[in-house]
Amino acid sequence: MKKNGIRIIAMVVSIVFICLNTTSCFEFLDEYLSTLEIESDTEKQNTQVNEDTTAFQNETDGSNVVNIHVDVEQNLIFSKYDVDVFLDTFQKKVMTVTHGKSNEISLKLSNGTYKICFRSAKKNEVVSNVNIDVTCNIDAYYSVHCESDRLVVKPYKYDIKRDLESNEIRIDFNQSDLVSSDISDVLSKLKKMGCTNIVVSEKKDVEETSYSYHKVISITIDKRTDYADGSIIKKDAKIEIVYHESKPAEVTTSRATTTTTEEKGSPASYHSSNDRDVAKQGNSGIFAYRNKGTSYYIYYVIDFDNGYVYRFLSNEETAEKVKIISGDLNSYVLVRYKSGNEVWENALHFKYKNKPETLILQDDDRFDWTFNSYSVIDAVKILNTKKIYDYSAK
Fold this sequence. Notes:
Layout: H1 2-21, H2 25-59, E1 64-72, E2 83-87, E3 93-97, E4 102-109, E5 112-120, E6 127-134, E7 138-146, E8 151-160, E9 168-170, H3 175-178, H4 183-193, E10 198-206, E11 216-221, E12 232-234, E13 239-246, H5 261-264, H6 276-279, E14 286-292, E15 297-303, E16 308-313, E17 318-326, E18 333-339, E19 342-352, E20 355-362, E21 368-373, H7 376-383, E22 387-390
Parallel strand pairs: 1-7, 10-13, 17-22
Antiparallel strand pairs: 1-4, 2-3, 2-5, 5-6, 7-8, 9-12, 11-13, 14-15, 14-21, 15-16, 16-17, 17-18, 18-19, 19-20, 20-21
């Protein structure tokens, strides 16, 4: 206040001088008063933030130190928003994590089960929650993947700082480590760890020749999915596993009627970010295609908006990125790769002109590979989980 008083006296002298030399003194005075008002509002906001932080710290004065680490995965194209983290209710915000970055906070909590809430800093309705059981000091690690309509939160490690009791085990896996693994391998692993209460059920929804045959769909431990590497469970905790089994034999057959996308005249939004009329031009937006390998899928995402083609496999953690040199999908899109001293070119084009349902890849040996249209949304979701390497040749 004293500082502002001195400033006002100095400014009054300046204003008198200005009024003697110009007709804009009243505008100058209004501008200065507005500045003081903004500074006052800022001070009030800062005071309120400090009060809220102090209040939260007073509520978390338990004896257990809980360190929460949050990694927000970097999306390449869509849903690049920050994430707010709350404890128990949305009135207790503990931190904000910038998109593509990490953040952590240390809390002191009493014994009990707490809900950690994750919410989009952009859309309040995009929310995800996980529970954490606190009985001792814990380091908890979470990865967050942002999507347009939801947050996918995965605990990936717990460092629970206490010794095991005789009827307990400390698991060394996350749910994502076992999902899509062969059911026999999963059962063998769990039994070796000492798990004694395993319930298995099958979902008869695939052919024996399918890549998903006998692959695990989901695993819950005592009805929960928020376990992670380092979680402590009882040896007799109920572990429920669902896996893919082959379909039952068909009893009756009927004549099927197929209708192509061209016949239906539906929009091409499934495999392109454009409607069909624009997509068939093959020179703008984003396209997605997929082909099945022996035990994996090969994906291509063609992004005209940013000028790149992405290639990745379902069973690998990386993706290739290469710059579009020229062309469109009705003639051919030319891309040029470089790895070490080797340089080679591939060409991509629609199988039939103005029909974006099927893609042909011509490799550097002039061999043609066929790819079928695939959901742009799903392909980009998978791409956003990969580590991307640029192989563009200059």
